[in-house]
Every structure is written in C-alpha cells, then in structure tokens.
C-alpha cells in the first residue's frame, strides 16, 4: 500500500506540532526553591510576640538577652522595666504580661499560689549582689565601706524604695546590720526602683548609692565610678525568680523564652553582669 512520501512528512510534521503545543501547555514540574530571607524570617516567627515584665536591675542584661533571643528565633520581645513590687500589683490587677522576671523569687511564688502564674514554672534564674557606688569625680574614699557614710559632707544617699523594690530591702538590711542606718536615714533618697536609684547617683543628685552590681557593670556606670562590694553576710540573698503568667496570650512563646533563659549562652551573659547563677558555688 502506497502511503506517499509527502503524506508521511505532512503527518509527522503535524504530530510534532501537536506534541510541542502540549508540552508548552503542560505545567513544568515544581522545583524546591531555596527559601527567601523574608519567607525564612516569617517561618521563624512562630512564637510571635512575648511581653516581658522585668525588674529594673535587669535593664541592660535583659536588653541583650531579648536581642539575642530575637536573632535566634525571629520572635519579638517587648520588655517593660520597673520595680518587682509594682509589677506584682499590676499583674494581680490584670496587666497583660507573658513572663515576669522578679528581683525576688517570693513574688513569682505568690502569683503561682494565687493561680496567676503557671503552676511549677517559677525558676531561680540568678542571685543578685549590692555594692556601694560613687561617681569617678567623688572625693569620698569608697574603700572605707559603710564607714564613709558617716562623712558629714554627704547630703544624700540613694537606695531603691524598700516598700516594693527587693534591692531597696537588701540595702536597708545591710545598712542596719552595719550599724549605720540611724546615721543616714534622714539623708536617704528613695528611687522608685533600683535603676532610678542609680540615676540619682550618676546624675549627681545623690552623693553615694547602694546599687545593684548588675547596673554598676552596665555601660553607663561601668567606667564612670568606683564601687565597694558590700559583704554578703550583711543582707539576705537576693534570689531572683522568673515565672510564666497564666493569663499569657502567648504561652508557647513565653515558655520558649523561659527555656532560652536557661541556656548556657544566657547564663554566661548573666554571669558577666555580676549575678551568681543557680546551682553554682559562690566565688
């Protein structure tokens, strides 16, 4: 049977055109593209925003911790600083925080007992220290320790308010045990929190202050003053606790942040700010 060369060529050409059209119309197989930076960042933001209430002795340390956590996870951390006692009252009145870092572990325990914090989440993250501090241009001989507070040239001694600031309570206890409280009580100026107490001395509105070592080691004060370490037998250990709040709108992010606090990197950072770490011997 004769098909004819011309007919065969026409048929083959037609088939090739059909196959080409079908190939162009068919979708290409999906390739796994490398994630863009935006997509990668969005994927890492699974824990959302974590709202943190932090005692003011943590002001600079917490800024570093929050920044490191954000870089590691893509989450957002919003930090509010203040006195632990004031935060306790705010939380008891419904303040919308996810995590509470107190300068006193009793406050987190109290919130747990009231059902305002997740049961069993209280964690001792650090033990704080207090020091006597003066500015670099002060003529006071800080090496004399508390004895220097009897100097008649001293007009104001700054401490945090003992009524709601754990560091203020520690300062008052140390002054009493050292036998100098009565000599200085009329010259005390009380900061709303330990950070404000430090500002009073840094700005020259107070001659000397009993401050948190963590603030003295922070950038604004580190190279601008002199400190005397207050003997630890003069005040009760400043045990600092953190707790996840039961009213948290982001419990997953809150627990993730708490886990990050327990990491070696964060523990090392806290140690750099002068804190004694739990389960470690004092130097």
| Gross geometry | elongated
CATH superfamily of the largest domain: Periplasmic binding protein-like II
Instruction: Find the structural class using helix and strand composition.
Output: alpha/beta
CATH class of the largest domain: Alpha Beta
Q: Major sheet: size, sense and barrel closure?
A: 5 strands, mixed
For this structure, the CATH topology of the largest domain is D-Maltodextrin-Binding Protein, domain 2
CATH architecture of the largest domain: 3-Layer(aba) Sandwich
- How many beta-strand elements? 10
Quaternary structure state of the chains depicted: single chain
Low-confidence spans? 1-44
DSSP helix count? 12
How many angstroms does the end-to-end distance come to?
A: 105 Å
Plain-language structure description:
The chain has a five-stranded mixed β-sheet with strand order 2-1-3-10-4, sandwiched between helices. The protein has helices at residues 5-25, 37-44, 59-73, 84-92, 106-113, 166-177, 181-184, 194-202, 213-216, 219-222, 251-261, 264-272, and strands at 49-55, 76-82, 99-101, 123-128, 130-135, 157-160, 188-191, 208-212, 225-229, 238-244. Residues 1-44 have low confidence and may be disordered. The N and C termini lie far apart (105 Å). The radius of gyration is 31 Å and the shape is elongated. Helix 3 (59-73) links the parallel strand 1 (49-55) and strand 2. It is of the alpha/beta class and 283 residues long. The chain folds into two domains: 45-127 and 238-272, D-Maltodextrin-Binding Protein, domain 2, CATH 3.40.190.10; 128-234, Periplasmic binding protein-like II (D-Maltodextrin-Binding Protein, domain 2, 3-Layer(aba) Sandwich), CATH 3.40.190.10.
